[in-house]
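Reviewers of the previous submission asked for a worked example of the structure-prediction workflow described in the proposal, so we include one complete record here. The input consisted solely of the amino acid sequence. No template or homolog information was supplied to the procedure at any stage.
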Amino acid sequence: MSKIDIRRKHGKSLKAAKTAVSRTADAIGKKFAIQSTWEGDTLLFSRGGVNGRIHVGKTELRVHAELGFLLGAMKPMIEAEIHRQLDDNFG
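From that input alone, the workflow returned the following structure tokens.
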């Protein structure tokens, strides 16, 4: 099983960071058919072959995902898209 673990500092308020994470999740969700829901300050996401979360802290966010066998082959593409979306939504 492949894992994605990304940590990123941010300078936004918690509310603004959660809004940016929601935009990121919406964009990635459309591209990869991923469903997501908020549980406190953590966005949980899943679909067949992937489960993960994005935790939003006061100064940092952390993306953690576990990819099944088939999606593991797409790990570099998925990671690149996550970084691109975070760059777009967090500047």
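The mean pLDDT is 93. We consider this example representative of the routine output the project will generate in years two and three.
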